[in-house]
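Reopening: Putative symporter YjmB still failing for me.
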Amino acid sequence: MSGTNEITNDVSDRAAAKKSGKLSFKEKFSVGTGGLTVSLGNQSVRTTGQGVLNMILGIPAQWVGIVLAIPLLWDAITDPIMGNFSDNFKSKHGRRRPFIFGGAILMGLTFASIWMIPMGWSDAGKLTWFLVTSLLFYTAYTIFSVPFMALTYEMTPDYDERTAVQGYVTFWNRLGEMTYMGLIPLSLIFVARKYGYADSNDLTALQKMEGIRVAAAIYGGIGMTLFGMLPAFFGKERNYELNLKEHQGKKDPFWQSAKLALQNKAFAILCSLAVFTIIAGVFASNMDWYLLIYYLSDGDVALGTQWKLIVTIGYAVVGVLGIPLIVWLTGKMSKIHGFMFIYGMMILNALIRWIVYRPGRFDDPLVWGSLAESGSSLAAIAKSLIWLDPLTGGFFWIGVGVLGQSLIADVCDDDEIKNGHRREGMFGAIYGWASKASFALSFVLIGIFLAMIGFDPALSEQTPATYFNMRVAMCVGAAGPAILCFVLLAFYPLNKKKAEENREKLEAKRGES
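Support: Ran it again with your exact input. Result attached.
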């Protein structure tokens, strides 16, 4: 009899959880693994392609840059198309999971094929191989990533639980960012040991490519396919059957869907927040690299890069550890308050950087050999105060990843009430497009700015005016967009109360309790 009561209680608990919108740890953790696939798919081809084509195969950098840019343009074009197609798709497995499952498999296969470049071909032939296979890969990436992000929006109607879902996605995304840079170094270590070399510089191009291919197969097979398939098994589109019945036979035309998405005031503000946040982050993270090398390390690229690596690791660690803090804060208050905290930290970070990035703080050597040498290096890091930079600035990307994506889920509810359709795919695709365009714009602005202030990379020491302008740009480039974001938040119309009211309206319409 007690066993029957336990089963009844378990069923009741699951039913109550479903009605409340609460998800199990297993669901959130398993779906979140797709964030690793998204991160590897977004970064690995660009970073590895630059090193393979230019440094290993010796193809001129200008041609490499063009070939790397074309697939990104293709990706930006296909995202909204895939979003609309997924929104209108009908199957017994839902609108998203078939694409997530198939896209993950295709990503693994096409990623491995990119690096099977025929070594006997000319430079033009090698570039053609890379371009064609990259276009196939980014098509597979779009097939996976757009429906995946849409699925994360629609798993739960709960205001706070949506933030928790995006927290898991961002956690896995950050893990991906910590690993994608390792493809070339790990592959060269592997193949150097195989052939008995102490230094990977002694390897031939053919031997280096052998290691790249092995590492790419592992990255593609495990990081992309295996982890990417998990959301298809554990993620469920809430109310799919009800929505399918309500919109039976009704299509949401592409241009109409895009127009209605862009006309949504809350969504337009979210896209603007993403644009300003990304520009601030990219501008600051690139400008500090120049300062660390030329201003603080006297043009010593190796030393400056070591300091940059320390900063990068610090940002990654704070970016991961800060996720639970932001999720907790938004649960206690709201997502808007979470954004306000992040933008406040961005402004504080700008002030910290003005104080920390000064000559004299980075004079102690960094040597990672014996325990004593490593200890002195850690002391040098502590003395420099550079750790204050990631401690205050590491929250940058949580705003775009966790809060921005979580608020899009609320926007989808608001849009359904106003226009009668669920278009998570289109909203996610446009938000992703705005983010990618912001990265591209940021690099253009950095190049223009460096040219305007007279920066000359051939000189190990720049003029005092150049250094001053770079420091101003690093700090104002972060604080200025943060202040603009504060202004935009004042006009954001979809607060926590409104979002919860929208949920009640939709559940009443669908007959849910």
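The longest helix spans residues 123-154. If you still see a failure, please send the error message rather than a screenshot.
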